[in-house]
Amino acid sequence: MDVFVSYASADRDKARAIARLLTEHGYSVWWDRQIPPGQTFDDVIQKALEEAKCVVVLWSSASVSSNWVKTEAADAAARRILVPALIDDVRLPMEFKRIQTANLVAWDSGPTNTEFQNLLASVRSLVEHDGSQAAVHQTATSGLRADPAPRSAASSRGRYIAMIVAATLLALAGAFYALLPRDRPATTTVTQAEAQPKAAVPAIATDAAPVPPVVAPRSATPVSRRINLLAKENGGQVVVAPDKIWLRSIDDYEDMQAWSGIGEAVFAFKDEAPATFDTFLVLIPNTSDANLHQFELLAGNESATGTFSTIGQFATQNVRIMNAPFQAFKFDPVKARYLKVKVLTDFRDRKGSAALHKFQLMGSLD
User: Fold this and answer.
1) Which residue in 120, 248, 287, 290 has its CB near the most CB atoms, within 10 A?
2) Which of 304, 277, 233 is nearest to 365 (CA)?
3) How far, in Å, are 40, 42, 161, 202 from residue 1 at the CA level?
4) What is the pLDDT of residues 257-279, one digit of tens each?
């Protein structure tokens, strides 16, 4: 079974609409909570939850106070298969606030809505994998699953009740934390040093030679005061893209959920002024056939829609490099006003589309 839809009973119509669209896209979906005669409620749900490759949780005014939904969400988050969606304008439970969430508050149940497409891309990246990805999931969840021997109904029910109690305690802890006095909201930041790569990934050889007007000579002064030029706090911005989902490539969230990047996008630096750069970084948090594999970098000086010259073609490794999940690609220093990132293939050799996460570009503003 591909997708488990978790929701409060008051949101059954919305759950039905999402299940229908996911089914139309070819996924098997468990969402109807009617229990067959002779089976217990928690046993059926526990079995469906354990078999799911992806769990879509619908957050609403009813579900944020539902221990059942929060327990199912906690189980999915621990297994890193949670795909949350907001269907009411409500505050999420504290333990799920930092997980990127699709906003379906204004969704009309249609398949072309951008936020629904974001959700669909996340489902696709989790479900459409090969045996190696399944092994990664199994390793990640081995501490949560029971022994493979058959379980009695009583033991399964006991485990599920324990999960509910744990979720309730988490909710109470979150409420207590919210009442504590503080001068300003706590934030989590990643320093530039932490984001620096420790290991470079070799680029694919390419016959395309750098264009002299764009590429600085090898004898150029080394890049100084290096920063991530694409970071929003440093003035980085997406200026041309197929859709606004590309904004996620440089946003402030270090989430691990993939999104479907199609075609190519153009990035500019602070005030669209020139910058010198020599290292591009791609976040690969886990193994997936949908991950970005081959891509091309190009540089331009005319305008965001003007002429671009190739820097080179590169290829990621389809693994998480533990000490440097941002895989680094180095090239001769380039001075330009714009950077274009062109998606070539994913690891299924699908052309022009891949599951993306985050980008960085190391260099200095001129």
Assistant:
1) 290
2) 277
3) 20, 18, 23, 38
4) 677 888 999 999 999 999 999 99
